[in-house]
Amino acid sequence: MSQLHLDPARSRRAGRRPRTSVFWLSLPLAVAAGLVFLLPLTGLLPDTGQNLDATRQPPGFLDGGSWAHPLGTDKLGQDVLTQFVSTGRLTIVIGLAGALVAIVPGTLLGVLAGYFRGWVDRVVSILINAQLALPFILVALAIIANRGSSLPVLFLVLALTGWAVCARVTRAATLAVRERQFVLGLRAAGASETRIVLRHILPNLAGTIVALGTLQVGTAILVESALSFLGLGVAPPRASWGSMLASGQDELSQAWWIAFFPGLAITLLVLLVNLLGDALLTHHDPRKRRR
Questions:
Q1: Which of 50, 149, 225, 280 has the most other CB atoms within 10 Å of its CB?
Q2: Secondary structure (DSSP) of the chain
Q3: What pLDDT, in 10s, does the model give residues 100-147?
Q4: Helix or strand or coil: residue 70?
């Protein structure tokens, strides 16, 4: 029977690849977030007031455009770049907060189900399957029709539509950690269940939880953008990239840049966030790293 021989140099290179991916994916995200949050403080953004003499002005890099409005103007003569930056701040904040409100209850229920098993596991598994069987748009419509459009209601929708995936993954990870020798030794030594979960189980799941939270940021941004595009997300006077995209859909034939830049930003941001989350999962999962 042949034995499996692992090349140490190859293993080290495989371990470095996820870390390198995490760095190169984190860099553009950090730069983009810094520009969105710090650019308004510099005073370099054009005025966001209406100017009916400069309506539907193309971006500065196109014929007929002006660098006074680098991304052009909308049908009211308002600067698209200023709107893009201001709405981007809210989109990023919603993505981060939406991931948090989903990952906290999801992680809590997943850890409880995976560690205590029995009836707790059965109840949580039924809730997970029931939640995953419901289309998120129906859940969102039901809640928003009953409560109206507001940021608290939006966060409630993000929590209800995101916790199940987090719970399912953390449950599976907890089941694996639960059977390790150090956990069995702690039980034999008389350590309390609370101490084992808080001091030993959760720290071993930290990498998985961070990766899940990163992936959930992209999901929250997509859900919020879809709801805002339908007029069910952020309520005026607030605006996000999704609502900016919705306001520009009627202008595609005359001023395509109004909808193009927020749509491109949503696509690139979600793509980079998902790639970063996948790289983090690979970094913290030895089986994926070996593959």
A1: 225
A2: -PPP---HHHHHHHHHHHHHHHHHHHHHHHHHHHHHHHHHHHT-SPP-S--GGGTTPPPTTSTT--TTSTT-B-TT--BHHHHHHHHHHHHHHHHHHHHHHHHHHHHHHHHHHHHH-HHHHHHHHHHHHHHHHS-HHHHHHHHHHHH-S-HHHHHHHHHHHHHHHHHHHHHHHHHHHHTSHHHHHHHHTT--HHHHIIIIIHHHTHHHHHHHHHHHHHHHHHHHHHHHHTT-SSPTT---HHHHHHHHGGGTTT-THHHHHHHHHHHHHHHHHHHHHHHHHHHH-HHHHH-
A3: 999 999 999 999 999 988 899 999 999 999 998 888 888 888 888 888
A4: coil
